[in-house]
Amino acid sequence: MSVKPNKTLAIWLLIICFFIIVLVIFGGYVRLTRSGLSIVEWNVITGMIPPIGEAAWQEAFAKYQLSPEFIKINKTMTVEEYKFIYYNEYIHRMLGRWTGMLYVVPLFYFMLKKTIPWRKSGFYLIIGLGFAFQGFLGWYMVSSGLIDRPSVSHYRLTAHLLTALGLLGLCWWAVLCNIYGSDEVPEDRPARKSAQWLAAGMVAVLLVQISYGGLVAGLKAGHASNTWPLMFGKLIPPGLLSFVEPWWRNLVEVPITVHYVHRWFAFAVLTMALILYYVARHKAYFPEIRPGVLTMVGLVCVQIALGVGVIWFHVPAWLALVHQGVAILLLMVALFINHRIRFALDE
Predict the structure, then answer these.
(1) So what's the pLDDT on residue 1?
(2) In this prediction, what percent of the chain has a pLDDT beyond 70?
(3) How far from 64 is each of 38, 39, 81, 278, CA to CA, in Å?
């Protein structure tokens, strides 16, 4: 789809990107403070108002007291302590709803004014539907921790994270299109096609690593080991693929194995970033991507250092959230590189 630069749309979408980033990082805070299961109902309308008055708080707390998390983990929790985790989850839900409204209402205004032509509105409408799906997926995730376990499904948590980042990626891509334009460049050089595949591979490798980050978070696998580079005194601990059968389940269900894959797959990300850097530095094509690629290499190195810090210091919340934030920046830089390779003119 060809898009001409539009400053107004770019600013609007940048604001949406900002709030999605806040949502993802605050979602990490909600998880780290064990606040995500505090609201045991999903009321789209009435849920927009928190409990008012002592009787309402007692009613909400009574419902939470029936949950597996209270029974198995927080059975000594008081109402005042409950209010803290309730408000964490409440703020997260409200931020999600208001961000969705901040997207949908201007979208229809821009379509009505033909700032976004109807024939080119499909991409933007898909993003709007994505916000609705993300809300449903959030509740689907929470509901998995309200039946017989005091935690959410790590699969659903990872899906929730990836969907949020998918929304961010689409909005960020639209930002880039409205800043630079997106008129296709004739692919008269094989190197451009090769570079596109390489840049797309960078995004794919990043998404695998981020997915494992979601699995680590859902399984609380960050606590599996607090040493690096050795794990339990060994570079490769025995039995990583033999805890459960079949063997592949270890890769996505066993905390020790998931932790191990996540810590070392980071170097696959670094390898891809270095290959991109080599291509950008030694080829005469796509000079616009060189600052972005250099930024990518730097951020990957910072991210690896942060990951090691999270392990060494027993997963402090603030460091884990910084680690999550840098992962988001890496994805955005990778998408920027992809956009410029696809649409930038050679010098």
Answers:
(1) 57
(2) 95
(3) 6, 7, 12, 55
Give the largest CA-CA distance in the chain.
71
Q: Cα 266–268–269 angle (5° rounding)?
A: 65
- 3-state SS, residue 327: helix
- Paired tokens of 105: 């209402």
Q: Which two tokens stand for residue 229?
A: 């580079």
Contact call for residues 224 and 256 (beta carbons, < 8 A): yes
Distance in angstroms (rounded) separating the CA atoms of residues 23 and 96: 7
Q: Name residue 260's amino acid.
A: Y
Q: Which of 204, 208, 304 is nearest to 251 (CA)?
A: 208
Neighbours of 66 (CB within 10 A): 10
Bridge partners, residue 231, by sequence: 234
CB atoms within 10 A of CB 115: 14
Rounded to two decimals, the pTM is: 0.94
Alpha carbon distance 96, 300 (integer Å)? 29
Strand, coil or helix: 34: coil
The DSSP result for 121-165, as a single string, is -HHHHHHHHHHHHHHHHHHHHHHTTSSS-SS--HHHHHHHHHHHH
Check residues 65 and 47 and name the one with the higher pLDDT: 65
How many other C-beta atoms lie within 10 A of the C-beta of residue 71? 11
Least confident of 58-72, 114-128, 142-156, 270-284: 270-284
Mean of the per-residue pLDDT values for the chain? Answer: 92
CA distance 175 to 13: 6
